[in-house]
Queue: 2 jobs
Job 1
Amino acid sequence: MRTFEHVNAPDVQTAVALLGEASTEAIAGGTDLLGELKARLRSPQRLVNLKTLAGLQEISYSPKAGLRLGALVTLAEIERHPIIQERFPILAQAAASAATPQLRNMGTIGGNLCQKPRCWYYRNKLFECWLKGGDKCFAEDGENKYHAILGADRCHAVHPSDLAPALIALDATLRVVGPDLDGELSLEELYTKPTESRRQMTILGPGELITDIRVPIPKNGSRGVYLKTMERQSWSFALVSVAAQMNFAGERIADARVVLGGVAAIPWRARDSERILIGQRFSEGLAERAVEAAVAGAQPLRDNEYKVSLAKALVKRVIIDLCSTTD
Amino acid sequence: MATKAVRAKKLKVAIRGPGKTAIKLTVNGETHELLIEPRRTLLNALRKDLGLTGTKKACDEGTCGTCTVLLEGKPIYACMALAIECDGKSVETIESLSKDGQLHPIQRAFIAEDALQCGFCTPGQIMSVKALLDENPNPTLDDVKRVLSGNLCRCGAYPKLFQAALRAADLVRTGR
């Protein structure tokens, strides 16, 4: 790592002002940022430590307002929280499946949602890839085993978060504070495919910070599940993951949200699958149609066609799981 | 740079670095004042500034677990923490375990179960087991597997590591 200055942020407004300056990066858990600094993917002149911000470390819950997570809540705190385990199990499952106990003690929910891709070309300083400002995606005709199968354009990296698909399936919203804004948006709106003029996976601009994540209470009888496939049983990013939350009116599926991880530059909402499921009774045929819709338009690369099969198997399994559970 | 410094000064925040700055670190119960650059990792502060080389350095990027220490009682990777952000906090390392020449029960269990080959990952493995037993003196095999899931052993000593952790729990519980 190159040298840098270090400032403990005293409050959100000051943090925003500091982060608006050039060559400045925010640090919270640090588990993603320090990797980038050590690899010299970036060498900021100043780090602003967000861990000193008061009021962003709490998990609170009320039956009316739902769940509120301060952006500095760690993944370990989410994984172990009794109310999250009981009322928002897919969130606890997703947190528990991420990284390792040590990294979950360090990493924050805000940082997890904003983490950078794990693409080996992106993470290697020797490759000036498109996402880092170059003009070529080296994965496109290179080593692309872990890359995107859906919606990729100039960059084939996938978003690595486990918590983002789960929180989108739970319809979470964020509070974002920045130099010229203070407002709420849905978590789904945070993510964007990188474009020519904005080569990043979120819409956050300089100095814009997530302060809170809010999760509404799932409807009565709503059920969810998070499934993740990995190359080993722990300490791996998802090859493919699926978060799904459904509720039922009698035997019919009243609402369904199905979100895939590990397949695209953003957590991938399988809206066509949701449309097929909503209003219907479960049948094998229905599940098959929803599965095909989830991967419609997939464009696998040389080494990642297996992800299409994995995604289909996982989507089928979550549908069967959720439709066959009875309270 | 000049304008930036002025603006930050206007905001009344304390800017430290990029040169050395003083921090207080409590390691194994003893408080030290260290002069470190903000880029110093906790791992390098322990090894280079305090000479505590029991905590090992291997990958230095959060992918092996051999630098596991307890920060405020919780296991973390010392290579992925900045020492400056541990200012005023308390750290436990492998050096804290043996007392007056007597090995800690976890260390004795590792020897009894032959839970290592090359031994390089052992300090990290032991600190993860320490964190588990501090919180749960009666762990199941699954609890042990889970707490050690962030410590790689390239010799593949896992079955013996699990036995050692369970034996250590037994020793600690029975006060032996």
Note: Residues 111 and 164 of chain B are 8 Å apart (CA to CA).
Job 2
Amino acid sequence: MPKTPSSTPAIELRAVSRRFADPGGRTVGVHPTSLSVPQGEIHGIIGFSGAGKSTLLRLVNLLERPDAGEVIVHGNTLTRLSAAGLRQARHRIGMIFQHFNLLHNQTVADNVALPMRIAGADPARIRERVQVCLDFVGLAEKADVYPGRLSGGQKQRVAIARALAPEPHVLLADEPTSALDPRTTLDLLGVLADANRRFGVTILLVSHEMEVIRRLCHRVSVMEGGRIVEQLDIADGRIPEGSQLASWLSDFGAVGPAASPSPTTRPDEAAAPHHFALEAAHA
Amino acid sequence: MLETLIELAPEILKATGETLLMLAICLSAAVVIGGALGLLVFLTSRGQSLERFRAFNLIANGVINVVRSFPFIILLVAISPFTRVIAGTSIGPLAASVPLSIAAIFYFARLIEQTLRDLPRGVIEAAEAMGASPLQIIRHVLLVEARSGLVLAVTVLAVSFLSYSAVAGVVGGGGIGDLAIRYGYYRFQTDVMVITIVLLIILVQSVQFFGQWAARRVDKR
């Protein structure tokens, strides 16, 4: 049965697994796990430290090679590609990181241009995209500044502009706000939501901060011990009662050891019982 | 002392020229060949993008360590048959440049590899996630982010091999070291010894000063 482009999931992981020994000698990683993210969705992955969230995310662009299973991005089976084919496919998969990973010896504009230079884009086109993407993240006037002179939030905006420059189908976000304060986090979530709306880019985001997931994501996968144990629809910002996630929130107040204080709560949700638990824990 | 200086001025100029020639040859060889070797050793190390060529890494590491184990004067003598093949002679500054280059290549390879190891892994990973090939990672990430470290590595190399080139004087290699040995040591002319040492100090100071200035200029971190 032929699939129309819109019915092709943006990201599909089929029974992928990846195991390795952590520094303490324990085997960690991802057990055979499947995940399908439709085009245009913002999908969150949440879980405690060591649950395999980041490994799962890094399997999507094969920064981690799965031991078994298939990775399909935008209809392209990455696990079957040659090294050159994989590089080609990665040109259209953006990624942002907790620690931004910008080049400190290059200006903001050159950082944003980097993925397009790597992809061999035409210089005029690169200039145009750098301008558009820096405008989009509100840093057009910082084009000639070096990243060392930017705040953390500004650095992450540059990283988002850099990821969006080659017009990716998919944006992978690995704890993108975990190094930022709550207000900056909120601003940045706005930028990511905008990118999703304006450019239709599918976002897969890993975070241990419940507020980040709740504010941004349409759906969330809950991970524990290297497996997705639950998938929830949270497009309305509510966490279904009786879910694993809701019970974690009432037990721990948050998921993860270093959840930062929640940004201002949306008033329409303050009444939900699990949110009381979350706010109480931060009070 | 002043008379000695005037009397020996032509010799001193010639010796300085020879020293600079030896330095130019061995530094060029080290930067081009040693630099490439250092990059390859780094890229084939664990967790880097050419990790699948770990065999190369192990062999190259071994060879680098072996060459670096040789006291320079022993290396100089040991490879003299090879030097004769390359330079046509085993005396003079050109001949001395052969062992100097070999020592410098492996010394610089190690310096480069260690400089690159200091780069944060995340920046290289970000480039890999963009679909960068190993060559693109070298050009767009390693040479850009490590550039001030690389300038300092060349500085250390230049200073070390300025003094190595003086050792070449022992076997008639020419240069400032040769002058020091022939006049200062064999003929007990202390004033010549002092002049050559002052000359070497001036050279080392200028190389170090210029290297640090250049490293600061290219560092935007």
Note: Chain B has ten helices and no strands.
